[in-house]
């Protein structure tokens, strides 16, 4: 079921593990390392992606080494430098400078995939929405169509929303496998704000909200460093005025790699009014 995890010092331990009760398919860890410190990741049955949020690191996957991964001082400093770590081998992350932070995204995976690097130049960006519709955001696809045939059902992106703007809007869901209308994916949102005193709101509700026996709609206040887990329902989110929002997004498909979102029927007319919706949808497929 949907769950909010408040910001905390996770001491390099997983925030979300496979089959942890809230989600079944997804994994998320956040590593914070000083220069020279290292951390080993071993997650059997899971494909992993290491995204350098800040600083620089050396990343070794089995016998393959990736040197000097990371080119930005912080998440607001351009596209990410990342390593897809594949499956089946331990991953050793070693920080090359103080303040190195790495987001580790993962998804359950029964296949065998080799590691590869994703440089900032290989990250694809799509712009969605507009200032006029209070929905402008840019989505940087780190692990998306560039990994077709080279990865399982894991999709990872970074979303940057303008102050006071909505994301995941018009409201959509992806909790039921019924292609070509919709495919089933779990999702993790990890939030940051600029300035860090910023906040937002996360909605999560099912189509039958208000019907006896249906789940009660959720609305939570999101702050810098919080994480929200989505296994079902519509889940639009909004940043408060004066605060830019960043959302590290992990999607894991239950049956396939192609994400097809189903938009809430009473709000589908908005798809024609908000620019970039079709481009956004095509990048996830």
Q: Can you give keywords for this protein?
A:
285 residues; Jelly Rolls; 7-stranded antiparallel sheet
Give an account of the 3D structure:
The protein is an all-beta fold. The protein folds into two domains: 11-120, Jelly Rolls (Sandwich); 123-285, Sandwich (Jelly Rolls). It is 3% helix and 43% strand. It has one helix at residues 277-284; strands at 3-5, 26-33, 38-41, 46-54, 57-61, 64-69, 82-86, 91-95, 100-108, 116-118, 124-128, 137-143, 154-161, 166-167, 172-173, 185-194, 199-204, 218-223, 227-230, 237-239, 244-253, 262-263. It has a seven-stranded antiparallel sheet, with helices on one face. Strands 2-9-4-7-10 form a five-stranded antiparallel sheet, with no helix packed on it. A hairpin with a 2-residue loop joins strand 5 (57-61) and strand 6. The longest helix has 8 residues, at 277-284. It is globular and about 50 Å long. The model has no long low-confidence stretch (mean pLDDT 96).
Total separate domains: 2
Which blocks of ≥5 consecutive residues have pLDDT under 50? none
CATH topology descriptor of the largest domain: Jelly Rolls
CATH class of the largest domain: Mainly Beta
Number of strands: 22
Q: What number is the mean pLDDT?
A: 96
């Amino acid at each position: 079921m949907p769950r909010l995890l408040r910001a905390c010092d996770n001491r390099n331990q997983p925030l979300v593990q496979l089959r942890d009760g809230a989600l079944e398919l997804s994994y998320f860890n956040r590593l914070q390392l000083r220069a020279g410190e290292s951390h080993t990741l071993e997650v059997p049955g899971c494909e992993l992606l290491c995204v350098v949020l800040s600083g620089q690191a050396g990343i070794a996957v089995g016998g393959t080494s990736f040197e000097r991964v990371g080119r930005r001082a912080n998440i607001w400093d351009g596209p990410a430098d990342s390593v897809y770590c594949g499956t089946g081998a331990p991953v050793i992350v070693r920080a090359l400078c103080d303040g190195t932070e790495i987001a580790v995204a993962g998804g359950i995976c029964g296949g065998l995939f080799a590691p590869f690097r994703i440089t900032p130049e290989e990250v694809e960006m799509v712009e969605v929405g507009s200032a006029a519709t209070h929905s402008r955001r840019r989505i940087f696809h780190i692990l998306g169509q560039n990994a077709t045939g080279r990865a399982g059902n894991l999709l990872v992106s970074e979303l940057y929303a303008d102050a006071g703007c909505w994301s995941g809007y018009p409201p959509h869901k992806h909790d039921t496998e019924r292609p070509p209308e919709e495919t089933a994916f779990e999702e993790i949102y990890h939030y940051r704000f600029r300035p860090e005193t910023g906040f937002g709101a996360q909605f999560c509700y099912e189509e039958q909200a208000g019907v006896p026996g249906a789940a009660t709609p959720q609305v939570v206040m999101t702050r810098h460093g919080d994480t929200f887990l989505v296994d079902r329902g519509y889940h639009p989110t909004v940043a408060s005025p004066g605060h830019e929002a960043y959302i590290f997004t992990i999607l894991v498909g239950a049956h396939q790699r192609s994400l097809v979102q189903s938009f809430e029927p009473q709000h589908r007319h908005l798809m024609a009014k908000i620019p970039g919706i079709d481009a956004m949808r095509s990048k996830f497929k």
